[in-house]
Amino acid sequence: MQRDTLIFDLIQKEKKRQEDGIELIASENFASPQVIEAMGTVLTNKYAEGLPGKRYYGGCEVVDEIETLAIERAKELFGATWANVQPHSGAQANAAVMLAVLNAGDAILGFDLSHGGHLTHGSPVNFSGKLYRANFYGVEKETGVINYDVVEATAKKEKPKLMICGASAYSRDWDYERLRAIADQVGALLLADVSHPAGLIARGLLNDPLDYCHIVTTTTHKTLRGPRGGMIMMREDFENPFGLKTPKGDLRMMTSLLDGGVFPGTQGGPLEHVIAAKAIAFQEALSDDYMSYVLQVQKNAKIMSQAFVDKGYKVISDGTDNHMMLIDLRPKNLSGKQAENGLIKADITINKNMVPFDDKSPFVTSGMRLGTAAMTTRGLKENDMLKIAELVDDALMNHENESKLSAIKKEVNSWMSNFPLYK
Ligand SMILES: *Cc1c(COP(=O)(O)O)cnc(C)c1O
């Protein structure tokens, strides 16, 4: 077969883009060479519908060992007693959970997308908002922080069958204990989607959702630094709180309902090459090196958010507990779109983001979201965060000045050449 140089040249081009620039997209990271290596293997050839030991195809002995290792390592990393590592992505993990525990038309209660929630938590353009009756809670205008009394009042009014916590753009920790108390009062299941801060949670730097939430979903590629993918976990509460039944009518354990929500509910064959990469990433995340990494991620985020505050930026909730921050650009007379477009010309990648109570559309937005997971993987420390804030501010204040932006880009490229990424 002729080598597809067109595609491989583009892959090299993308590698160079990643190496040359400053990556501040909060959901991105740089997976290790062995995580990437595992994804490009013959495991992609194998069909393995079902679970280890219970497959619908022959020849699964080897992938069974790999998937079992992934499950065991996931359980060790998060202190879970059960895990399904097959979801192809975070959205797929949430779809599987909802299919498993809800019926069409049931009420759910999630964190408002425009306040930092995720599409899969009930947005009208997503399956979760089309199939279920979605209600939302948000942050307070004054503080940018969730008021749990309001969550409780909303839950009592809407009587959701599933409450969802976790976010894509919320920089504060969550009170899972309080949320569980609210869920218990209204007879709801509590799902925590920790896609973003999963790595910090795994290593004990944030509250542990598995202490209180019935079900926890996550991606594996954000702070967790594994391959693009998702997973579902539980620690306790294996009872089936609603007497949920299978299509045949028999009562099922929560774990088998959730397994069924993944396959055959929402997916076909699992991606065993990606599951192998997940197993590697979980092992890496159990290491001392990764512990130092997440500590540095959190330290870097605190320093960076303070640097922006010091430069007169409005950081929502005035700081961060995790790896990210959300900045309202209105006091600087900039939109998120202008910021994103200006910064990319300086090889600094961020994403525009709605801020709570935004008056602009999702295509324009008033804010930008920044995270430290990727640049910390590159080896950047506290002082480097101050320099990044300088560069970002300089580019934003000159977002229409092409020559200034190209000078900043040169500086960014030469600085980044000191932090080799993939040799
Ligand atoms: C990123 C994210 C997801 C979706 O993950 P994908 O892998 O992109 O499908 C779901 N929930 C939250 C809170 C996220 O941040």
From TrEMBL:
InterPro entries: PyrdxlP-dep_Trfase, PyrdxlP-dep_Trfase_major, PyrdxlP-dep_Trfase_small, Ser_HO-MeTrfase, Ser_HO-MeTrfase-like, Ser_HO-MeTrfase_PLP_BS, SHMT-like_dom. The modification N6-(pyridoxal phosphate)lysine is found at residue 222. Keywords: Amino-acid biosynthesis, Cytoplasm, One-carbon metabolism, Pyridoxal phosphate, Transferase. One of its GO terms (molecular function) is glycine hydroxymethyltransferase activity. PROSITE patterns: SHMT (PS00096). Pfam families: SHMT. It is found in: Cytoplasm. Its cofactor is pyridoxal 5'-phosphate. (6S)-5,6,7,8-tetrahydrofolate binds at residues 113, 117-119, 361-363. It catalyses: (6R)-5,10-methylene-5,6,7,8-tetrahydrofolate + glycine + H2O = (6S)-5,6,7,8-tetrahydrofolate + L-serine. Residues 2-391 form the Serine hydroxymethyltransferase-like domain. Its EC number is 2.1.2.1. Its main location: cytoplasm. Gene3D superfamilies: Aspartate Aminotransferase, domain 1, Type I PLP-dependent aspartate aminotransferase-like (Major domain). SUPFAM superfamilies: PLP-dependent transferases. The record marks 221 as: Plays an important role in substrate specificity. Pathway: Amino-acid biosynthesis; glycine biosynthesis; glycine from L-serine: step 1/1; One-carbon metabolism; tetrahydrofolate interconversion. It is an enzyme of class 2 (transferase). Homodimer. Belongs to the SHMT family. Catalyzes the reversible interconversion of serine and glycine with tetrahydrofolate (THF) serving as the one-carbon carrier. This reaction serves as the major source of one-carbon groups required for the biosynthesis of purines, thymidylate, methionine, and other important biomolecules. Also exhibits THF-independent aldolase activity toward beta-hydroxyamino acids, producing glycine and aldehydes, via a retro-aldol mechanism. This is Serine hydroxymethyltransferase. It comes from Imperialibacter roseus.
